[in-house]
């Protein structure tokens, strides 16, 4: 019995490492002065964070094309270790991604999950329904819209536990 316990003790870390290796790497490199606050926190005092870099993600709410740039409103979600939005989590406020030129709204459909790298560039007052809202403005350097396959990638279907369970995905 001692040999079995000892081999389990040594194999458990290897199994954990193997499962972690399945997750995709982050798509953007974090920078030293990156904002770790959520959009809701930034909206409270945007001047404190203006000019800092960030990596945020969320669900596309709307796209607005203007004369010289486009704005994508997002409902923010925390990011996983691969920088994918955790859409089953609680939203962390809204923000506006400012992109140069025209963006095709079909490339950023409402409900799509997106991660971006950019710089906080102030805020703007607006409305969500009838409620007043302060939107942090992010000048986008890079952005990525996640496909359903990319969102599933790296999520293993192995679960440990005691008892009986049935799951359908």
TrEMBL record:
Cellular component aspect of the GO annotation: outer membrane
InterPro entries: OMP_Slp
Keyword Lipoprotein: yes
Keyword Lipoprotein: yes
Assigned keywords, A-Z: Lipoprotein, Signal
Signal peptide start-end: 1-23
Protein name: Starvation-inducible outer membrane lipoprotein
Source organism phylogeny: Bacteria, Pseudomonadati, Pseudomonadota, Gammaproteobacteria, Lysobacterales
């Amino acid at each position: 019995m001692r040999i079995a316990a000892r081999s389990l003790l040594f194999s458990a870390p290897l199994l954990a490492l193997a499962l972690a290796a399945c997750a995709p790497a982050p798509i953007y490199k974090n920078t030293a002065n990156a904002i770790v606050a959520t959009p809701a926190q930034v909206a409270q005092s945007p001047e404190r964070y203006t000019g800092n870099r960030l990596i945020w993600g969320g669900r596309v709410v709307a796209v607005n094309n203007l004369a010289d740039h486009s704005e994508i409103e997002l409902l923010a979600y925390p990011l996983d270790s691969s920088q994918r939005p955790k859409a089953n989590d609680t939203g962390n406020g809204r923000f506006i991604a400012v992109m140069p030129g025209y963006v095709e709204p079909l490339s950023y459909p409402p409900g799509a999950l997106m991660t971006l790298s950019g710089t906080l560039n102030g805020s703007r007052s607006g409305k969500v329904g009838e409620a007043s809202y302060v939107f942090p403005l992010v000048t986008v350097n890079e952005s990525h819209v996640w496909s359903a396959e990319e969102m599933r990638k790296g999520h293993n279907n192995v679960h440990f536990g005691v008892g009986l369970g049935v799951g359908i995905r």
